[in-house]
C-alpha cells in the first residue's frame, strides 16, 4: 500500500516516496516523510511494518553517523547498503525479524551514483531503477520501457510523473502526494512535491 | 561496524556484557531502568509470552480478546491543544465502569491518553510519568513532547510481539509550541495536528475532519471535541459514558 521508486541516471539518482502513514483503513498522516538521510549523499527509503520501519532506519542512520565520527570519513553508498543488508540478515532468523523493504540511493565521489534494492528477506541488488509496494506492479513496466542509461534529469522526472499518473489511474488506493529528492555530486536536493488531483 | 569486525575489534557493549556475564530475562519488581549496562526486560523466567498468547487465542483455549474499546481524540488549533476522551471501560461485553478517566496528567504541560488495554496503558504511562519527572530533576528543564513520546515508543518496542495493547496520544506544550504524538504498541510514533484512536476513532474522524478550522475560537473547539466523542459513542458500542476534555495552553 506504500510506494517507493528510484531511478538512477549517469550522474544522479532520483527517488520518490508516497506521503501516507496508514493504520488499517485510516490515513493517520498525509505528509509523512519516508526518507532518512544517512549522510550528505545517501538516502534510505523505508517502508514496511509499523514500528519496524522507523526503528530500523534510525538504527542504520545512527550507526552510519557513528562510523563517520569514529573513523573520520563517511561510508560509501555500497558499504552502507551492505551494512544494512547484514543487519537485516542477522535479525531475519531471530525472534524479532524486521519486516522492512528498503531503497538506498547515494552518490559516491569515486564510483558515481548508485541505487540499491533491499527487501525484508535481506536480499540486495544494485539496480538502475527499482520500486517497492503494490504500485511497483503497475510501474515497473513503464520503467522497463522508457528507461535508458543516459537519462537527463528532465527525462527522469518525466518518467516519474508517468508512473505517478499510472498509479492515480489504476491503483485502488489514493496516494495523493509524493516526496521527491535528487542526489548528485552536490548532495541531496529536495524537489517539488508531486501531487495528484482527485480522480 | 564492518571495518571493526574485520579487524577483530570487539564493541564496548559486547565487552561489558561479557564482564557481567548475564543477558537473561530476569523477573524483578523494578525491572525497567534506563542507563543500566545490561538490557533486561521483565518476563517470568521460563515463560514464552508469544507462545502463551497464541495458545490463548486459538479455538479450544481460553480466549483473551484484546479490544481497543474507547474513543479518544486530540487536535491542535490556534489557541492550543484540545484532548477529549470518553469514559467507558469494558471487559468484553460487560461495562466495568462508566466513569474511567482515560487521560493521565504527566505534568501540567503534558498529557497522555489511553486506549487499548486499560492495565497496559495505565502502567506504561505512569512509568513514562516517572521517567519524565526524573528527566526534569536531572536536566533542570521540562522534557519535550517529542522526547516523552520517544521514551514511550521505545518502551513499546522493547515488548514488541508480546501482546501489549496501547494506543496513546502524548499531547503537550513545550519550547517548540503545541505537540501531539500518537504512539502505539506496534512502535508507531507519528507527529500530527489531529489524531483519534480506539474502536470509535473512525466515527470521530468523520466529525472532526468536516468540522475542523485552524482559526476556530476556543468555544468552537470545545464544541468540536465534544461532538467528536458524542458521535463516536452514539455509533460505537464500546465507547460511552461522559466526555472528559482538556485544553492545553501555553
From TrEMBL, chain A:
GO CC field: cytosol; nucleus; proteasome core complex, beta-subunit complex
Instruction: Tell me which UniProt keywords the record has, alphabetically.
Output: Cytoplasm, Nucleus, Proteasome
Q: Which InterPro entries match?
A: Ntn_hydrolases_N (IPR029055), Proteasome_beta2 (IPR035206), Proteasome_bsu_CS (IPR016050), Proteasome_sua/b (IPR001353), Proteasome_suB-type (IPR023333)
CDD domains attached to this UniProt entry: proteasome_beta_type_2
- The lineage's top-level taxon is Eukaryota
* UniProt keyword S-adenosyl-L-methionine present: no
Any one GO BP annotation for this protein = proteasome-mediated ubiquitin-dependent protein catabolic process
Record's keyword annotation contains Nucleus: yes
Where found, per UniProt?
Answer: Cytoplasm; Nucleus
List, alphabetically, the Pfam families matched. Answer: Proteasome (PF00227)
According to its UniProt record, which protein family does this protein belong to? Belongs to the peptidase T1B family.
What is the annotated quaternary arrangement, including any partners?
Component of the proteasome complex.
The task this protein performs is described as:
Component of the proteasome, a multicatalytic proteinase complex which is characterized by its ability to cleave peptides with Arg, Phe, Tyr, Leu, and Glu adjacent to the leaving group at neutral or slightly basic pH. The proteasome has an ATP-dependent proteolytic activity. Non-catalytic component of the 20S core proteasome complex involved in the proteolytic degradation of most intracellular proteins. This complex plays numerous essential roles within the cell by associating with different regulatory particles. Associated with two 19S regulatory particles, forms the 26S proteasome and thus participates in the ATP-dependent degradation of ubiquitinated proteins.
Write the protein's name: Proteasome subunit beta
Q: Which organism is it from?
A: Oryzias latipes (Japanese rice fish)
* Taxonomic path: Eukaryota, Metazoa, Chordata, Craniata, Vertebrata
From TrEMBL, chain B:
**PANTHER family per the UniProt record, alphabetical:** METALLOPROTEASE TLDD, PROTEASOME SUBUNIT BETA
Q: Which reactions are catalysed by this chain?
A: Cleavage of peptide bonds with very broad specificity
The GO terms describing molecular function are: threonine-type endopeptidase activity
User: Where the protein is mainly located, per its record?
Assistant: cytoplasm
Q: Which SUPFAM superfamilies match?
A: N-terminal nucleophile aminohydrolases (Ntn hydrolases)
UniProt name for this protein: Proteasome subunit beta
The cross-references to Pfam families, in alphabetical order and at most eight, read: Proteasome
Q: Which CDD domains does the record match to this protein?
A: proteasome_beta_type_5
Record's family? Belongs to the peptidase T1B family.
Species assigned in the record: Oryzias latipes
Subunit details: Component of the proteasome complex.
- What's in the keyword line of the UniProt record? Cytoplasm, Differentiation, Hydrolase, Immunity, Nucleus, Protease, Proteasome, Threonine protease, Zymogen
**Subcellular compartments:** Cytoplasm; Nucleus
Job description of the protein: Component of the proteasome, a multicatalytic proteinase complex which is characterized by its ability to cleave peptides with Arg, Phe, Tyr, Leu, and Glu adjacent to the leaving group at neutral or slightly basic pH. The proteasome has an ATP-dependent proteolytic activity. The proteasome is a multicatalytic proteinase complex which is characterized by its ability to cleave peptides with Arg, Phe, Tyr, Leu, and Glu adjacent to the leaving group at neutral or slightly basic pH. The proteasome has an ATP-dependent proteolytic activity. This subunit is involved in antigen processing to generate class I binding peptides.
Query: Active site annotated at which positions?
Result: 70
User: Which BP terms in the Gene Ontology apply to this protein?
Assistant: fat cell differentiation; immune system process; proteolysis involved in protein catabolic process
Is Methyltransferase a UniProt keyword of this protein? no
Give the Gene3D superfamilies listed for this entry: Glutamine Phosphoribosylpyrophosphate, subunit 1, domain 1 (3.60.20.10)
Annotated Gene Ontology cellular components are: cytoplasm; nucleoplasm; proteasome core complex
Q: Which InterPro entries match?
A: Ntn_hydrolases_N (IPR029055), Pept_T1A_subB (IPR000243), Proteasome_bsu_CS (IPR016050), Proteasome_sua/b (IPR001353), Proteasome_suB-type (IPR023333)
Amino acid at each position: 500500500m506504500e510506494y517507493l521508486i528510484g531511478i538512477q541516471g549517469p550522474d544522479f539518482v532520483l527517488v520518490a516516496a508516497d506521503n501516507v502513514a496508514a493504520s488499517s483503513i485510516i490515513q493517520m498522516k498525509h505528509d509523512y516523510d519516508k526518507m532518512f538521510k544517512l549522510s550528505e549523499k545517501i538516502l534510505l527509503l523505508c517502508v514496511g511494518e509499523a514500528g519496524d520501519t522507523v526503528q530500523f532506519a534510525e538504527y542504520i542512520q545512527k550507526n552510519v553517523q557513528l562510523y563517520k565520527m569514529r573513523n573520520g570519513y563517511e561510508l560509501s553508498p555500497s558499504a552502507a547498503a551492505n551494512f544494512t543488508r547484514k543487519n537485516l540478515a542477522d535479525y531475519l532468523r531471530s525472534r524479532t525479524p524486521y519486516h522492512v523493504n528498503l531503497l538506498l540511493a547515494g552518490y559516491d565521489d569515486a564510483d558515481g551514483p548508485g541505487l540499491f534494492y533491499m527487501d525484508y528477506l535481506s536480499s540486495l541488488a544494485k539496480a538502475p531503477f527499482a520500486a517497492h509496494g503494490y504500485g511497483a506492479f503497475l510501474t515497473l513496466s513503464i520503467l522497463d520501457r522508457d528507461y535508458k542509461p543516459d537519462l537527463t534529469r528532465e527525462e527522469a522526472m518525466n518518467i516519474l510523473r508517468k508512473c505517478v499518473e499510472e498509479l492515480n489511474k489504476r491503483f485502488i488506493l489514493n496516494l495523493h502526494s509524493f516526496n521527491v529528492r535528487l542526489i548528485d555530486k552536490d548532495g541531496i536536493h529536495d524537489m517539488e512535491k508531486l501531487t495528484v488531483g482527485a480522480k | 561496524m564492518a571495518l571493526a569486525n574485520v579487524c577483530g575489534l570487539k564493541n564496548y557493549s559486547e565487552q561489558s556484557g561479557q564482564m557481567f556475564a548475564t543477558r537473561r530475562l530476569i523477573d524483578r519488581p523494578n525491572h525497567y531502568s534506563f542507563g543500566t549496562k545490561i538490557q533486561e526486560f521483565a518476563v517470568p523466567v521460563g515463560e514464552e509470552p508469544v507462545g502463551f498468547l497464541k495458545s490463548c487465542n486459538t479455538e479450544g483455549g481460553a480466549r483473551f480478546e484484546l479490544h481497543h474499546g474507547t474513543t479518544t481524540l486530540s487536535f491542535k488549533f490556534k489557541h492550543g491543544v484540545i484532548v477529549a476522551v470518553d469514559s467507558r471501560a469494558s471487559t468484553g461485553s460487560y461495562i466495568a465502569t462508566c466513569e474511567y478517566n482515560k487521560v493521565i496528567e504527566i505534568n501540567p504541560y503534558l498529557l497522555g491518553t489511553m486506549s487499548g488495554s486499560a492495565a497496559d496503558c495505565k502502567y506504561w504511562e505512569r512509568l513514562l510519568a516517572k521517567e519524565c519527572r526524573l528527566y526534569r530533576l536531572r536536566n533542570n528543564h521540562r522534557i519535550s513532547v517529542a522526547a516523552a513520546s520517544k521514551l514511550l515508543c521505545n518502551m513499546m518496542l522493547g515488548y514488541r510481539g508480546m501482546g501489549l495493547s496501547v494506543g496513546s496520544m502524548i499531547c503537550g506544550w513545550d519550547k517548540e509550541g503545541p505537540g501531539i504524538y500518537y504512539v502505539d504498541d506496534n512502535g508507531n510514533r507519528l507527529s500530527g495536528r489531529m489524531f483519534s484512536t480506539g474502536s470509535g476513532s473512525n466515527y470521530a474522524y468523520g466529525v472532526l475532519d468536516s468540522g475542523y478550522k485552524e482559526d476556530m475560537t476556543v468555544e468552537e473547539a470545545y464544541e468540536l471535541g465534544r461532538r467528536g466523542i458524542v458521535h463516536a459513542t452514539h455509533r460505537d458500542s464500546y465507547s460511552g459514558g461522559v466526555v472528559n476534555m482538556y485544553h492545553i495552553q501555553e
